[in-house]
Amino acid sequence: MTQGLAAGVDIGGTKVAAGVVDADGRVIARVRRPTPSTDRQAVEEVVADVVGELRAGYDIATVGIGAAGFVDSGRSKVMFAPHLAWRDEALRDGVTRRLGLPVVVENDANAAAWAEWRFGAGRGEDHLVCVTLGTGIGGGIVSGGRVRRGRHGMAGEFGHMVVVPDGHRCECGNRGCLEQYASGNVLGREARELARAGSPVTVPLMRRAGGDIDALAGPLITEAARDGDPCAVELFEDVGRWLGIGLANLAAALDPGMFVIGGGVSDAGDLLLRPARESFRRTLTGRGFRPEPVIVKAALGSEAGLVGAADLARSSL
Fold first, then answer.
1. Among 52, 56, 90, 293, which one is most buried in terms of CB atoms within 10 A?
2. Are the CB atoms for 154 and 78 separated by under 8 Å?
3. Residue 18's beta-bridge partner residues?
4. Are strands 5-11 and 60-67 parallel, antiparallel or unpaired?
């Protein structure tokens, strides 16, 4: 048995990823399950199951859960989750009862921001903003060596800034949220709309998808863009442009030294970041007369959330 370890659990809209994390941020064991997004108790059961599987081989001292939702200031409840069934869900207490271990619940993007600041692309930066692009958009702020959660614990929900009044309906209930224009879901939605309209630019994408319009989703679009598919590249340019606008708004409000862009969509690298940087520079208030934050790709990939959740749980002991 390995001593002094923490388990990190990252609960997203489609998967629950868990790992054993050491004090240097290294993931030494991993397990994954689908997210039962429509059943709150089933989520607790999955978390208990994956941690139990990890405990069979490792001496785990504490559990950190990164949850895709609005987490209260006590880091115990998920108050609201746009992509999951949680409403005022006492997740910490439920998982603690099942496991008998100390549990900390953290917003998943806060956890990713902490991991990138401690172990990844943000090391050495005193004022960092992390933006994660996946099913939706999350965000986290690390300043002065602390995660900045706001008065009620709900800071960093950048994906739900309204950028287009009366725009696309969002799962949060509003219209025109940033994540309706700059997330992984957008890539698939726009490709499917083009295909249903019979646009000839989607013919190569449809060939990749085996003729199944519903298979046009973020990972397939990313792969096609890397291979130079013009339609996929254009979709990334659109998403990157909106991302740059969102970052410029955040720079005006928060004035960070660095933006770290994570989440699955960031796997596209410069296909996303180049148009984002161009749009950011065109939109930034005071451009040309102020220091500009750098925009970099996250270093820890899909494991940032579970690494950060585990490290935050360890630091709370």
1. 293
2. no
3. 9, 31
4. parallel
| Span 110-119, pLDDT tens digits | 999 999 999 9
Residues 38, 85 contacting (CB under 8 angstroms): yes
For residues 298 and 304, what is the distance between their CA atoms, to the nearest angstrom? 9
Residue 79: alpha-carbon gap to chain centroid: 18
Mention every residue, 6+ apart, whose C-beta is less than 8 A from residue 15.
Answer: 32, 33, 34, 35
pTM to 2 decimal places = 0.91
Q: In what order do the strands lie in the sheet with 146-147?
A: 146-147, 137-143, 127-133, 258-262, 294-297
Domain boundaries, the chain: 5-114+303-316, 124-298
CB neighbourhood size of 74 (10 A)? 10
CATH fold of 5-114+303-316 reads Nucleotidyltransferase; domain 5 (3.30.420)
259-306 pLDDT, tens per residue? 999 998 999 999 999 999 999 999 999 999 999 999 999 999 989 999
The pairing of beta strand 27-34 with beta strand 15-21: antiparallel
